[in-house]
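Lecture notes, part 5. Sequence design as translation. It can be helpful to think of inverse folding as translation between two languages: the language of shapes and the language of residues. The source text, in structure tokens, appears below.
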């Protein structure tokens, strides 16, 4: 397994996650599928807090194309996580989100997810370029994307 080199400093946007008893599986640790749910929640919170919905077309939004997770440490109830979210890549019609999950008490990295999303026109049922207004907002919020 490759060494994952992520720190809290790599993320600007944070989403808190409380591990619930029901997140665990028969082996006594958080089920692997739950990491994707935590990642999705962080991505959607990032979107809700940073996308200028009032000026974006009503019929357009993100759609998930691919997701993956690198697991670093096990989680157990009642762990608390801080999920750092950033856009790792901004393409013509795609946004690649990365979510780093860290234990709140120790700060140790437990997982990193990547989600390739595309800007999608749900009325036309087709991929479309990311609107310039959204691109400008994202580049202002995450200036390293423009480098």
């Amino acid at each position: 397994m490759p060494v994952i080199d992520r720190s809290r400093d790599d993320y600007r946007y944070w989403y808190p996650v409380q591990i619930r008893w029901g997140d665990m599986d028969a082996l006594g640790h958080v089920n692997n599928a739950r990491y994707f749910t935590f990642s999705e929640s962080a991505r959607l919170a990032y979107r809700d807090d940073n996308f200028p919905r009032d000026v974006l077309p009503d019929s357009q939004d993100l759609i998930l194309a691919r997701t993956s997770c690198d697991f670093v440490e096990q989680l157990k109830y009642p762990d608390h996580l801080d999920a750092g979210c950033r856009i790792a890549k901004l393409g013509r019609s795609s946004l690649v989100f990365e979510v780093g999950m860290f234990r709140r008490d120790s700060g140790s990295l437990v997982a990193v997810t990547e989600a390739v999303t595309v800007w999608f026109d749900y009325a036309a049922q087709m991929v479309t370029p990311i609107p310039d207004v959204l691109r400008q907002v994202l580049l202002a919020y995450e200036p390293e994307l423009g480098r």
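The translated text above is only one of many valid answers, since several sequences can fold into similar shapes. The chain has one domain: 8-139.
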